[in-house]
Amino acid sequence: MKKPSLHPLTWWIWAGLLAIAIIRFQSTVLSLLCVGAVAGLVFWLREDAPWGRSFTWTLKLSLWILMIRTVIGMLIGVPIPGNTVLTLPIVQLPSWMPGIRIGGAVTSERLTSALSEGILICAIILIFGAAASLTSPHRLLRTLPVYIYEFGVSIVIATSALPQLVTSVSRIRQAQLLRGQSSRGFKSWKRIAIPLLEESLARSLDLAAAMDSRGYGISSKRSRYRPIKWSYLDSFVIISAIAVVGVS
Amino acid sequence: MIKFSNVSLIYPNSTTTVLENLNLEIVEGEMVLVIGPTGSGKSSLLRLINGLVPHHTGGILAGDVTVDGTSTQLVKPGGMAHLIGIVGQNPLNGFVTDTVEEELAFGMENLNLPNDVMRKRVEEILDLLSLAPLRNRTIATLSGGEQQRVAIGSALVTHPKVLVLDEPTSALDPIAAEEVLSILQRLVHDLSLTVVIAEHKLERVIQFADRVVYINGQGETKIGSPEQIMVDSPIAPPIVELARALGLHEIGTTVREMRRMTQDLRDKKYQSVEPATTSNNSLRIKIDSLSVSYPGHNAVKNFTANIHGNEIVALMGRNGAGKSSLLKAMAGIAQHAKGSVEVSGINPQSLKGKSRRESIGYIPQEPSDLLYGQSVNLECEQADRDNEVRPGTTAALLEQLVPGVSGHTHPRDLSEGQRLGLALSVILSSNPQVLILDEPTRGLDYQAKRELVSILISFAQSYDKCVVLATHDVELVADLATRVIFIADGEKVADGTTLDVLLSSPAFAPQVAKVMSPHPWLRVRDVTAAIEIS
């Protein structure tokens, strides 16, 4: 079955609307359902291109966020009464910090509230990850009007950075593994971050120079080769997302 | 067409001038080659033409550069887009869109050309550069040669009068490079396009050039015909080295000229030199029916080979033939690999940490991937600590490989060759049994290449070690390798001594072999040695 080709802005608008809906629903179950549906869509529609992989990457990122968020939610905060699951030792805080405590009894209520808040945040991240995964950043740039040229350049650099970062990270990790360095832990991140930063900086400068020397933004008018058209399918996707917001 | 009048260029915080008082006039339909050691300012010279230097990079420019009467001081690079097409060193970084057709159209859209003109010109370029079958492909999935052709196409599509190319063939295999260069040659002759090109691999381009600009790195430049410049240039292709070694009065820059000049030399009878038979060394790498597959295609198919100590094996083949995948499998990091690989009797995938460093050293295509220190010194100290060797060992190695690198420099500020040297000394400090290099000569000049060759040869000869490298550089292979494995589409096509494999295919024969054919000589020193004993 042929994959439908949509206007590049469609998925971003759709993601924005879904995020609004998720915030308004405030429901863990619905958020999880939404993420499931989005994941299905991404694995069906995404292309085999560098940006196609950014969803998997945001998936990993949000699992991390969820974990850290839950742990911190359990440790720090205002006590919520309920069934105690386990008790952690309490850290003594000075008297001028009333109402906050670190450690103490972990109630199942506290656990669920920490988890469900984490899931909401992750759901929103994942939905935007899906939008990034489904639209090529370059096609997105093509839809921008010319008068926001300077802005457009920064957008293309920003949006093409994430997917290319994903490819570079895996390449550099591989190289570091071969130097016999472990690829886990905090220290390994420093080792990856430095070559990564250099590379993305060099790449962005190259791209900016290339765009400039090919005359991007010199003319206030800009013609379109095979313009990207807004189709019925685009309207359908957006309307269904608006409907979801309306229900919430 | 292009006029440099009294041009001097200096970058802030730098002690040397890049260019000093350059006067150069390039007429329409001329093909000018810019040469010089790494980091001497070739790219800066090219980028001066459309004003990227200094508009984009900063730097102090004195004098004036005009193209077709327009001064770059008055117009920004974008304003020259209809006049100059520029192709950067790494075309992949400069692509703005993702499919071939859209990339070709991008420049014309910027110039606000009407739609019917664009459609016509896109078709024209697709035909001219034989890109028609690729029109809807995603650029990221194309091979290096195809990407280079797309980059040239998208520069040409606005019908510029000047085309500027920075190392257009450095990442290409010999056949793809020839394709690209013959297209340029045709454009110069058919359309009277003015072409300015910078390149390290002179053996590929010098025969096409009308004039050569030599930059020495201290700001001085020399301009002349290829023959004039080649008489005493420290940078010279093997064919010129051959002419010098033989003491010929004239210098030829093409194989045809050189064959005419060496006619009587070739007609003499020579004793054949018996190749030194290698003793049986221990088995280092054992590959048995290895296959590596990615979703969609098989990179390596049923590959079997044994590599022994003291061998230097070159993997050759077209872009995308599976060389890198094979190297990764040898190093034990290829995913989806079937079959078995053993390095010194151990499966490389199970190696970790120190034992990995001591058995396999791997230099990736981008040597900077390995480097994360804030300075050369920190990088060397880290390597000493990792490998539990005496402090200063790595620094001493580096001094031997590339003398005169300041320890306080940031690895990013090193030249391409110096960075490779640093990565190499970090890897060599752990004294690995097997050294694997992926395309080590991208961006290296002849001097840096000579150093690399001597390091690798002495490494392979010490203690029964072996070197495996993937490369497109035929001249490097002739200088360095003892054995060549030729791969096409993931399958082994030829495997034999360097002499046998390189002589059997004209596309992959080094220049000296082409000149001296049918004598089995690959390098200048083979020729002089043969003449001496007879």
Written description of the protein model:
The complex is a heterodimer of chains A (248) and B (534). Chain A has 248 residues and is mainly α. Chain A folds into 2 domains: 12-135, no CATH class; 136-226, no CATH class. Chain A has 8 helices and 3 strands, in the order αααβββααααα. Chain A has helices spanning 8-25, 28-45, 54-75, 108-134, 137-142, 149-178, 185-213, 232-247, and strands spanning 76-77, 84-91, 101-107. A 3-stranded antiparallel sheet of chain A has the order 1-3-2. In chain A, helix 1 runs antiparallel to helix 4 (108-134), helix 3 runs antiparallel to helix 4 (108-134) and helix 6 (149-178) crosses helix 7 (185-213). The longest helix of chain A has 30 residues, at 149-178. Chain B is an alpha/beta fold. Chain B is 37% helix and 22% strand. Chain B is built from 22 helices and 19 strands. In chain B, the strands form 4 sheets. In chain B, strands 6-7-8-3-9-10 form a 6-stranded mixed sheet, sandwiched between helices. A 6-stranded mixed sheet of chain B has the order 15-16-17-13-18-19, sandwiched between helices. A 4-stranded antiparallel sheet of chain B has the order 2-1-4-5, with helices on one face. The relative contact order of chain B is 0.10. At the A-B interface, helix 5, helix 6 and helix 7 of A face helix 4, helix 5 and helix 14 of B.
